[in-house]
Fold:
Amino acid sequence: MNIAAIQTFLCVVRTRNLNRAAEEMYVTQSAVTARLDALEQALGAKLLVRSRKGATLTKEGFAFLEQAEVITRSWDNARTRISLPSGVTRLFSFVCDPGLWSGLGEKWIGQIRNGHPETAFEIWSGSVADAQSWLQSGMSDAAMLTEPLTRTGFESHELAADELIQVATEPRQAVQWDPGYIYVDYGPAIRAQHAETWPSVEMASIAFSSPDWALPHLLTHGGSAYLPRRMSAALIQDGKLFEVEGSAVFTRRVFLSWSKGRTDLFPWLASTGPEI
Structure:
């Protein structure tokens, strides 16, 4: 079993077709078939049901899929680490919740970079489940999330408090229901607080899972939404957004989690870190 066979397996899973996988990888279909045969033989299990219509995962293939992704990411990570540019001696791999990057994750990373020119950085967008898997496998070193990773082998500390405020494109006071309201889902904890504070039976006509997506929609189409203060402050100052008077403010905690042992290589993890 080799890395090319695993990469081929993932390409076939993504394209659902051996011919398309061969085209993407610039190899012949027979080469794709040979690699898949070798992989299945090495694992002792059939991973794909192959037919003229395409390829679908078997139960064993589905079980192997996550491990295949971990292996290929680890391989890419290893290649990066041994081919660092001149003057750079180490690589810091960072996972960030996509809703925490703008004005928070990017600021923290920027301040770390300024103090450590000998370190290269790679940043991945990921959920709690992604971060847990990637840190556990050694693919990534640390993660910024809205909850700490608590499994054995991880360390965490609270990094910041992220204020969520209701903003609107026109100045106004809080009302029970705004027809132009845009709902942003910040996870179970904020969802429960939101439902308790605004128990309206009305549903927002549009919802987003990330404030980074909700903000441009709000600015283009108007209305109101809950957004992080860090994202809204400059727009409020410029008069493009207005904090809704009398509206509740929600706060979510932001945590930095990392793999034990990484503090020897990256001592800033154990400290409170730069001011954000």
Notes: The chain has three domains: 3-81, 90-159+254-269, 162-253. The two ends are 46 Å apart (CA to CA).
